[in-house]
Write a structure and sequence with these properties.
The chain is α/β, with parallel strands linked by helices and 199 residues long. Helix content is 55%, strand content 10%.
């Protein structure tokens, strides 16, 4: 159906395509599109069926498949309008965008060839392991040696709120990625090692 529409219209620079479609999925349609000499220059962006809450192994397999096909952009379902506009702008200028991050396609391809697990880790890092800006800010302050009381005062929240954030961070990382931290020190060491926070 897409091919028929393209035949009777001006060839677009970019196609933003949902992953879930009637019949073939979005990635398969893009594969067919890029196999045609006439249409292979069209930049394609897939809008995933997943939101940032549900990043799992299957989602990363879809990302790898999309990259293998030659799709230029992969966005999560809960991407906002600014992220979508930015993705369109980036791919028009020849860049590859995965989950809001501009990535070097050569580096991604190297990861695909060498080891799927490293690809998953690469993408998780680019997505900050789904940690929110507030959670990263708290980790940053903890890494600088600030107490819960100081952090609470600086962020305008209660000490209990800081503790809850720490517990939520540990729970999230354990539930989604199987990372089990016995204490805050282990958490901070991990955050520094994975460049979630800067020292």
């Amino acid at each position: 159906q897409l091919m028929i529409k393209l035949e009777s219209s001006i060839i677009p620079d970019v196609i933003l395509m949902d992953y879930h479609l009637t019949g073939l999925d979005g990635i398969s349609i893009c594969r067919n599109l890029k196999s045609h000499e006439k249409y292979k220059g069209i930049k394609t962006i897939i809008l995933s069926a997943y939101s940032s809450q549900f990043l799992d192994a299957h989602n990363y397999d879809l990302i790898r498949e999309a990259i293998d096909v030659g799709i230029e952009g992969y966005l999560l379902k809960d991407s906002n309008i600014d992220e979508i506009i930015n993705a369109i702008t980036e791919v028009v200028h020849g860049k590859t965008l995965v989950m809001g991050e501009t990535v070097d396609i050569r580096e991604i391809n190297k990861e695909i060839i060498e080891d799927r697990r490293r690809l998953v880790n690469f993408l998780k890092k680019n997505n900050n392991y789904c940690l929110t800006g507030k959670e990263i800010e708290i980790l940053q302050l903890l890494s600088q040696g600030h107490s819960a009381k100081t952090i609470a005062s600086q962020l305008g929240i209660s000490e209990e709120g800081v503790t809850n954030h720490k517990d939520n961070i540990k729970h999230k990382l354990n539930e989604r990625y199987g990372l089990n931290f016995k204490n805050v020190v282990e958490l901070i060491v991990w955050a520094i090692k994975n460049k979630i926070v800067k020292v």
